[in-house]
Amino acid sequence: MTMLDVRDLTVRFGGFTALDGLSLSVAPGETLALLGHNGAGKSTFFRSVLGFLKPAAGQLSIGGHLPGSAAARGLVSYLPENVVFHRALTGLEVLSFFARLRGEPVSVVMPLLEKVGVAHAARRPVGTWSKGMRQRLGLAQALIGAPGLLLLDEPTSGLDPVSRRDFYALIAEVAGRGAAVVLSSHGLEEVENRTDRVAILSAGRLVAQGPLAALAEAAALRAQIRVTARAGQADALQTRFGGTRFNGTALELSCDMKLKFDLVRRIAADEGVADIEVRLPSLNDVYRFYSDNGGRS
Ligand SMILES: Nc1ncnc2c1ncn2[C@@H]1O[C@H](COP(=O)(O)OP(=O)(O)OP(=O)(O)O)[C@@H](O)[C@H]1O
To answer: What range(s) does the ABC transporter domain occupy (predicted)?
Structure first.
């Protein structure tokens, strides 16, 4: 069963194609991170699922319903990228307003404010709240009425590391109750171990999709090894190990991750070597691999 099913979605603004043949699905209880540079199409994707944009081609279904239909609207909740609340209203008033809009009793409001950790400021105007507190209020707004599909557009921007951790704990709880969650973010490091799958968008195209570990493995990025030679040994080292000379005394080598241990052992045992430094591919390298060139090396 899927909560969100998107097939060959294409969205255009005039002659500009913002989303190009995108297909993905998200099951109840699953958390998907949508990643991509500025302008990759993440917000456009959310606005399409919400039914705000009419696709040029493709189909979307939310729990079997068309985007924008009453049934779909009842299932989906959304936290926009730049959440803005009336500055003069208190947190309690803001959330009560949204609860009424969703047909929920205002009795749900205080427990939600407590859940996101801003109950202490509930009776203060939102204009006096910090950005992180307003972001938490935005999340509380998205949690009203136990939605089946949560769309969160860069929900952690402006949050400090502790708030970020709390945020993901809350998302895990919501997903644990069966909601499907799609959230957008700018980097893999943040979503590592916190989402089930990632989908990487590049210039409106879905260039990679899957569990992060599988994407990292498929990228087959290489380890970088920098070797510093003892005085007068650089030429001999290059003859033995190859690589590129770097500032006269160092060599830069790259090797398949599977072969790195053997190579490092051989280098470390060489008498001409003064120092060795190994750099493994980071999650940022994996992200760049897919988002910059569509996964083509
Ligand atoms: N209403 C619009 N009219 C014309 N172009 C638009 C419109 N909305 C979005 N775009 C363009 O579509 C592309 C995708 O924009 P979108 O906001 O979806 O990117 P994003 O991935 O959310 O970026 P960011 O990370 O900066 O929020 C951009 O090039 C943007 O300029």
So the answer is: 4-228
Q: Specify the residue with its C-alpha closest to ligand 1, atom 8.
A: 44
| Range of the structural domain that residue 19 is part of | 4-217
Ligand 1 atom 17, closest CA: 43
Q: Which atom of ligand 1 is nearest to the CA of 37?
A: 25
Atom of ligand 1 nearest to the CA of 186: 25
Residue 100: CATH number of its domain = 3.40.50.300
Of how many residues is the chain composed?
297
Residues 234 and 213 in one domain: no
Digit-coded pLDDT (tens) for 219-251: 888 889 999 999 999 999 999 999 998 888 899
User: How confident is residue 295, by pLDDT bands cut at 50, 70 and 90?
Assistant: low
Domains: count for the chain? 2
For the ranges 88-102, 190-204, 265-279, the lowest mean pLDDT is seen at 190-204
Domain CATH number, residue 244:
3.30.70.120
Are 212 and 118 in the same domain? yes
Q: Is residue 250 part of a domain?
A: yes
What percentage of the chain reaches a pLDDT higher than 90? 70
Q: Which of 283, 14, 4, 271 is nearest to 151 (CA)?
A: 4
Query: From its phi and psi, is residue 210 left (phi > 0), alpha (psi between -120 and 50) or beta?
Result: left
Calculate helix-pair angle for 234-241, 260-268, nearest 10 degrees: 150
User: Which residue is closest in CA terms to ligand 1's atom 31?
Assistant: 39
